[in-house]
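Section 5: illustrative case.
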């Protein structure tokens, strides 16, 4: 993937801003050249997105106009930020569509699984992109020959490489580079650097073997929390086994009357009765939670109430989530047997989570159930768009609602451009360049 992230992406960037070998060659068609002030704005928007993108997504991305990006930054920027930051900024929109085709190719390459049919579709997409590149940037003019680099031609062989070696994530260089970076950090002796490096590799290998041979003992001795193991301060409720609640916790939380009304409206919609009747079944006090993590390598969510004023300046925002609800299908079929509700994707900011037990009521057919976990959400008005499939933005939120915690799928990031906020949803089935490091040297 370094073919894309270390070569093709910087090459396109150089075209757009007229850098290096293209600086003294004014384009015959200025449709792809970005004005300096526009490129500067893109750099500011990229740097400002640091605070509103969860730390698990990517590291602290610097201003793209002032820093040399490494492959990991390029991968995140081109896949998730470029569609929003470059939308409507090219003088000619066909260059933006050409960029979207490249992003589609990259996403196809880094799928965890790829079928023979998808591989052939990938091959045709790459051929189409290269042909468009020659027409849009090279223009079949000998004076533009520097635009035709070896890396552009190398893209035509990607489908063959995948067919021979499997999906790209099985052979890409990110794990090796990350490991080499770890080795570099462990060189603490200037006099004997190679001996220090050798000792670290040896100790790491020994710890790895101990972990394999004495797995039960290792689990008890480990100071790190394994994903499916609970820390002392974590709680799981019946029926919500995939969601682990974490402090801050407020045991005696007494909701305001308007909040109680919204909670009653939620249960009224579930049990198909009036919210006034439901209100009599709600407890007087509840438990409020500030954080939750999703098991099996899921996301960690910090609600907006979990971060204080001073702490907010140093914490990256992880309070925006993707959730799914059943909504009425406006396009009803003539067949009455077909369902009239469909699953729809929504985005919003989660403020806090409450746990409560609703009293049973035979008259309303409300059984004696365990605790319910509800999340207070400010929905973003995205008109039902899915950010994994199309560019999704919002500029305002609707009235706060309560939803069941199990409807939340993942945490999302955002990037601001003017008055609009664009959603960054990485829940699609593609590999990521952010890895979980082994904790052998920390345990």
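Designed sequence:
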């Amino acid at each position: 993937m370094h073919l894309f992230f270390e070569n093709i992406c910087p090459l396109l960037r150089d075209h757009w801003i007229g850098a290096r070998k293209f600086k003294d060659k004014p384009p015959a068609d200025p449709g792809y050249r970005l004005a300096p002030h526009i490129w500067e704005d893109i750099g500011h928007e990229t740097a400002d997105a640091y605070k509103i993108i969860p730390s698990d997504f990517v590291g602290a991305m610097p201003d793209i106009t002032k820093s040399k990006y490494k492959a990991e930054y390029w991968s995140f920027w081109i896949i998730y930020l470029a569609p929003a930051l470059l939308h409507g900024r090219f003088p000619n929109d066909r260059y933006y569509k050409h960029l979207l085709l490249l992003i589609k190719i990259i996403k196809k390459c880094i799928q965890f699984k790829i079928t023979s049919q998808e591989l052939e579709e990938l091959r045709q997409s790459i051929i189409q992109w290269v042909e468009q590149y020659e027409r849009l940037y090279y223009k079949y003019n000998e004076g533009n020959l520097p635009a035709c680099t070896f890396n552009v031609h190398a893209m035509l062989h990607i489908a063959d490489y995948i067919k021979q070696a499997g999906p790209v994530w099985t052979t890409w260089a990110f794990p090796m580079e990350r490991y080499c970076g770890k080795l570099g950090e462990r060189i603490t002796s200037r006099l004997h650097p190679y001996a220090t490096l050798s000792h670290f590799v040896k100790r790491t290998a020994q710890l790895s073997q101990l972990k394999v041979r004495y797995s039960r003992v290792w689990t008890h001795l480990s100071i790190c929390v394994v994903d499916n193991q609970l820390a002392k301060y974590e709680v799981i409720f019946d029926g919500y086994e995939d969601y682990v609640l974490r402090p801050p916790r407020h045991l005696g939380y007494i909701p305001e009357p308007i909040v109680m009304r919204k909670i009653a409206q939620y249960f009224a919609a579930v049990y198909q009765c009036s919210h006034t009747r439901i209100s009599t079944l709600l407890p007087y006090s509840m438990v409020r939670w500030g954080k939750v993590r999703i098991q099996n390598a899921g996301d960690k969510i910090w609600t907006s109430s979990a971060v204080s004023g001073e702490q907010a300046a140093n914490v990256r925002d992880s309070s925006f989530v993707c959730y799914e609800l059943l909504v009425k299908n406006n396009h009803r079929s003539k067949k009455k047997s077909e369902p009239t509700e469909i699953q729809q994707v929504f985005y919003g900011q989660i403020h806090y989570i409450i746990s409560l037990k609703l009293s049973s009521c035979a008259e309303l057919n409300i059984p004696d159930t365990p605790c319910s976990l509800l999340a207070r959400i400010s929905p973003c008005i995205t008109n039902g768009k899915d950010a994994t499939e199309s560019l999704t933005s919002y500029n305002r939120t609707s009235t706060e609602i309560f939803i069941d915690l199990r409807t939340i799928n993942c945490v999302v990031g955002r990037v601001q451009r003017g008055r609009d906020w664009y959603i960054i949803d990485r829940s699609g089935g593609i590999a990521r360049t952010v890895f979980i490091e082994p904790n052998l040297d920390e345990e």
